[in-house]
Amino acid sequence: MTGPTAGGAAGAVGAGAEGQRLFVGGDWVEPGGGHYEVVDPATEGTVGWAPEASREQVRAACAAAREAFGPWSRTAPEERAAILGRAADVMRARLLPYAELAQAETGATTGTARGMQVGVGVARFRRYARVEPAEWPIAPQVNEAGPMGRAGVMGAIAVRQPVGVVTCVTSYNNPWANPAGKVAPALAMGNTVVVKPAPQDPLSVYRMAQALEEAGVPRGVVNVVSGRAVGIGEAAVSSPDVDMVSFTGSTAVGQRIGEVCGRDMRRQLMELGGKGAALVFDDADLASAVAGIGTTFSFYSGQICTAPTRVLAQRGIHDRLVEQLAAYACRLKVGDPRAPQTVVGPVISAAHRDRVESYVELGRKEGATVVTGGERPPLERGFYVAPTLLADCTNDMRVTREEIFGPVVTVVPFDDEEEGIALADDSDYGLIDYVWSADVARAFRVARRLRAGGVGVNTVGRNMEAPFGGFRKSGVGRDVGSYALHAYSETQTIVWPG
């Protein structure tokens, strides 16, 4: 079980005779709980053998990060940035084999694995390999004489300080971009990290640790521990050595992590569920709206929290929009993600395929019309779900309200602007919503009224310097760009007499 089973075409660094090793305190160590199989969602074959850490090993990783924090936090920002830059160089040089491994673990199409997984991971390391000011002046304040002393002028600066040890719990839909978006800014700010990757696809995260090790990251600054047992994540979150938890995943798990963090007043950054509303007005460019909404059917096979899965269609274009979305979905080739023509690959596991299919059946029972999809594609192997469009939906249906996390889109009609906004905000979630309208003034007016962390106007694209995060049960905090440096820091104020 060495070689490809441990690291794919990227090599078997950190792999022992029985599979991938953990990365703890700068050493590659055999896991206390043995190994488990990582399955290719497209072929159902074995990708490799992932390590199952023991609780003691997780605690040892947290202790190693605590010991490394003091020296690392005092390292010059330029030196930390240089290490991140060298790590990006290593990742870029191995982009193709790393992408092959990511594709095998996740079932992503080749373009997605190369560009949106490893490619974005590299870009995020490069982004935080540049030094930004960590302090800024505050206007002097004139204080009148009083009980505290004579009149005087007080100067002040605000300084960003590292939080300490950060536990990063990452998602399965992107084992490169998601960990990189946590690890790179956390390290840039002088924090040390313990990464607990998703159990479905952890091998890519060990390749990231390998790149950082080769780039010269000091021992204990980066640690990676994996496992399927719930106790592994619990130990990584609850360790007294941990100062902050950064989590991407379901709202239910985020709530449990939040309870643990709350007991110890521990910092948290939560990127949780989404059920993005896409308001499409009568005057919208339907081709643009269909192309944007259609990404739910294809991109990560709908396994992305930012997807516009809940379409709100003004009645004047409702029927045409449904017809065009159905035609779009039917044109998408479902199958082997390694094939050049494939647009829709598998979902992550058999269990998740069953979950998505159960939601489609629930939609039928709730009264929705399955316009297209709804059946399992006729493929011999792999965890595939056909792109599915549900029409005749109402906002109180579970398929409209709950995050399905698959290639399923629901359509709800509305009459006027006020009703559209009310329907969009009638949700437990509030991550990213979308507005399509030829009237730009109206589109921006509606966007400002939506209770969501982000709003796309006539696009599903993102500005990668803009703050990212959600309202309500979609999360706590903001990251991306400079906002991530704030997220992984504490603000200290220093005051002196002028």
Automatic annotation (TrEMBL):
<dbReference type="Pfam" id="PF00171">
    <property type="entry name" value="Aldedh"/>
</dbReference>
<feature type="domain" description="Aldehyde dehydrogenase">
    <location>
        <begin position="28"/>
        <end position="494"/>
    </location>
</feature>
<dbReference type="InterPro" id="IPR015590">
    <property type="entry name" value="Aldehyde_DH_dom"/>
</dbReference>
<dbReference type="InterPro" id="IPR016162">
    <property type="entry name" value="Ald_DH_N"/>
</dbReference>
<protein>
    <submittedName>
        <fullName>Aldehyde dehydrogenase</fullName>
    </submittedName>
</protein>
<dbReference type="InterPro" id="IPR016161">
    <property type="entry name" value="Ald_DH/histidinol_DH"/>
</dbReference>
<keyword id="KW-0560">Oxidoreductase</keyword>
<dbReference type="InterPro" id="IPR016163">
    <property type="entry name" value="Ald_DH_C"/>
</dbReference>
